[in-house]
Amino acid sequence: MKKKELSVAELLSDTILINTHMTAQEIRKAYINFFKEKNHSVISRARLVPENDPTTLFTGSGMQPLLPYLLGQEHPEGNRLVDSQTCLRAQDIEEVGDNRHTTFFEMLGNWSLGDYFKKEQISWFFEFLTDIVKLDPSRIYVTCYSGNEELNIPKDEESAKIWSEIFQAKGVDSKTIEIGSEENGYKVGEQGGRIFFYKDKNWWCRAGKAENMPEGEPGGPDTEVFYIYPEVQHNKNYGKFCHPNCDCGRYIELGNSVFMEYKKTSSGFDKLPKQNVDYGGGLERIAAASLDSSDVFTVSLLQPIIEKLEQISSKKYGQYTNNMRVIADHLRGSVFLAVDGIVPSNKEQGYVMRRLVRRAIRFAFELGVEQNFLHEIIPVIIDIYSPDFPEVLSKKNEVIEILLKEEKVFRQTLRKGVKELEKMAQNGIIDGNHIFTLYDTYGFPVELSLEENLTQDYKISDNWREEFDSKMAEQRKRSQTATKGTFKGGLGGQTLQHMKYHTATHLMYQALRDVLGKHVIQHGSNITEERLRFDFSHPEKMTPEEIKKVEEIVNEQIDKDLVVTFEEHPTKEALEDLKVLGAFGDRYGDIVKVYRMQAKGSDKPFSFEICGGPHVDHTGQLSESNKKFRIIKEESSSSGIRRIKAVLS
Ligand code: ATP
Ligand code: MG
Q1: Pair 174, 96 in one domain
Q2: Of the candidates 610, 314, 637, 624, which has an alpha carbon nearest to the alpha carbon of residue 481?
Q3: 317 and 289 share a domain?
Q4: Is the same domain home to 258 and 393?
Q5: Which of 480, 506, 526 is the last residue of a domain?
Q6: How far, in Å, is the centroid of ligand 2 from the Cα of 100?
Q7: CA dihedral sign of residues 470, 574, 97, 402
Q8: How far apart are CA 567 and CA 274, in angstroms?
Q9: Which CATH number do you get for residue 567?
């Protein structure tokens, strides 16, 4: 482990002596060139905000924008593709602070659309890591799919065999170990293995688990590559023994290759006629491995930001690691959001951006940086990316302006918080509920409530922490369900008319599945006061009879005056055991809100769907003033995706 008091610059100068390393920029370039030489077309990154897809807030992987092509649509650039995709995973925000997660990162990707397969993919990636980036092959560990006997899916022996030969050729041992579930990994440990078989962790499909795949749906095994940092001590809080999928940070996942190989049938799984490779690997993590550093914040895309922070705060990264990681990550992400056209606001992408900027400012406060500082940091970030991303350079002034404005607004908020605190403190005591209100409503940092105490005359209640934590837990639950809403809803406003269309959307989703089949999965939804719009997977045009049938079912359910209620469930339970409907592309938090539309006296819901709401209370409201549900348009949206517009009129 690193010595505490060293700065990043010092840490790096140590590693330079013992390592020939590549910068992240060099690795990005080398990767693209490596695959270009293997006849791949270089495609440009998609924006952080997905186009024509209201179901997800952000582009979170390289494959996300390419999904239609992996599902069969022809790509104009051919069947071998390579890129570096900028990603934003708001869901990883709580993980930022560890050694390997950032909300914003670049994912290197290469794809074979029905062209090369396992042999090429595995050997090329290994060649890239060991011959180009010059990683130590004996520190590379891999995982493969162990198969599923009940579902009749074979074990991925083929990938394991390829890996075994590759390791042997480098003189590296290649023992295989059965692990099964991740939980079991903590019980059995590494056992001197090199190639590890896991079950669900190494299976890819859109439904998450092979058990939940509808007929006709593609899926396949994946093989993941890890780099070990033996000097990182296993943390027993995660489990008794360490293993590649342990989260202690000793093994770091560099990348994984999905082999889209099978199609679900009524009796099991058949080979797909055209098999694809989908590879994604974190640029920052590979760059960190090249530095022999288990810390992604030491790479050339982040290290200058940390150094600037050290300078501004006169504090050392080694001592204030967590804060500096959060600030560097959040501001870098905010810069890219601004480049991609987002401005801080109170909803959807803008809300996430606001949260990132304000969180960075708060974490800086804790470092003693109480003055404006974004004007010093943002140009550093822009300089890092400008040579490789012309759009960052061309939007430089705009980006700086947007972020400085948000900093100013937030500081005003802070001043308001101080005033509010003074008011609250008039009776001499500040408790956890006060501190929470200041934090939640005024965005006023907790540390400040405590610190103001030094200059103002009030007492802080002894159990403020407990009170605060319990308020915070409630709030987390609320905001999780609210985020679900923004992921899901596409709801612009929340008028009664919107709610009616929203409820009608749930009814129609279920009706479509009843009429067309279980392959129907929501791909997008957009609601205005005049109509609903709904995108879903279905391979062909709906017939007039099918449209009529769907309308009939929806109107029938409206007439039955179903009662609309919601409940909260752990996500896993909701998706796996309760089998509620979700939308494709969503990533959910730990708890989800599930809406139930059920006839009085019935023991089964007609519709049971993950959703943030809001909805009407009972479906009869949809037919007020004799209105009927009607589909006014059914058309193609993109390959394999249909779009319906419907009204209550
Ligand atoms: P992890 O288990 O480490 O969170 P993951 O399984 O979520 O990784 P994938 O969704 O498979 O990762 O993404 C592909 C690659 O992208 C990973 O192998 C990793 O190198 C990189 N990656 C994923 N999440 C992050 C993140 N938050 N920050 C940096 N790199 C990431
Ligand atoms: Mg992850």
Answers
A1: yes
A2: 610
A3: no
A4: no
A5: 480
A6: 10
A7: negative
A8: 42
A9: 3.30.980.10
pLDDT at 5: 52
pTM of the shown model:
0.72
Please tell me whether residues 158 and 62 are part of one structural domain. yes
The rounded Å distance from CA 539 to ligand 2 centre is 31
The closest alpha carbon to 498, from 474, 475, 452, 530, belongs to 530
Q: How far is the CA of 66 from the centre of ligand 1 (A)?
A: 18
Please give the torsion angle defined by the CA atoms of residues 501, 506, 507 and 510, in that order, rounded to the nearest 10 degrees: 150
Inside any domain, residue 487: no
Check whether residue 129 and residue 257 sit in a common domain.
yes
Residue 66 structure tokens: 């390419």
Give CA–CA dist 335/492, Å, rounded: 26
The residue whose C-alpha atom lies closest to atom 30 belonging to ligand 1 is 282
CATH value at residue 74: 3.30.930.10
Cα of 226 from ligand 1 centre, angstroms: 11
- Tell me if 352 sits within 8 A of 92, measured CB to CB: no
Instruction: For residue 31, give its domain range.
Output: 8-297
Q: What is the number of the ligand closest to the CA of 287?
A: 1
**According to the model, what pLDDT value does residue 568 have?**
79
Q: What is the pLDDT of residues 538-573, one digit of tens each?
A: 888 999 999 999 999 999 999 999 999 888 787 777
Q: Is the peptide bond before 614 cis (omega within 30 degrees of 0)?
A: yes
Residue 195: what pLDDT? 98
User: Is residue 293 located within the same domain as residue 324?
Assistant: no
Determine, yes or no, domain membership for 25: yes
Angle at 277 between CA 156 and CA 54, to 5 degrees: 115
Using most ligand atoms within 8 A of CB, pick from 88, 128, 238, 285 the residue to mutate for ligand 1.
Answer: 285
Tell me whether residue 1 is in a domain. Answer: no
What pLDDT sits at residue 104? 98
Q: With a cut of 70, which residues of the chain have pLDDT below it? A: 1-19, 452-456, 479-494, 577, 584-589
Residue 405 and residue 525 share a domain: no
The predicted pLDDT at position 487 comes to: 36
Confidence (pLDDT) at 235: 93
Question: How many domains does the chain fold into?
Answer: 3
For atom 29 of ligand 1, the residue with the nearest CA is 101
Distance 203 CA to ligand 2 centre (A): 15
- Closest C-alpha to ligand 1, atom 25: 101
Same domain, 61 and 165: yes
The ligand whose atoms approach the alpha carbon of 104 most closely is 1
Pocket of ligand 1 (CB under 6 A): 61, 89, 92, 101-102, 105, 107, 253-256, 280-282, 284-285
Residue (of 112, 117, 62) closest to 87 by Cα position: 62
Residue 44 lies in a domain: yes
pLDDT of residue 645: 95
Whose CA is closest to atom 28 on ligand 1?
101
Instruction: Choose one of 297, 314, 331: the last residue of a domain.
Output: 297
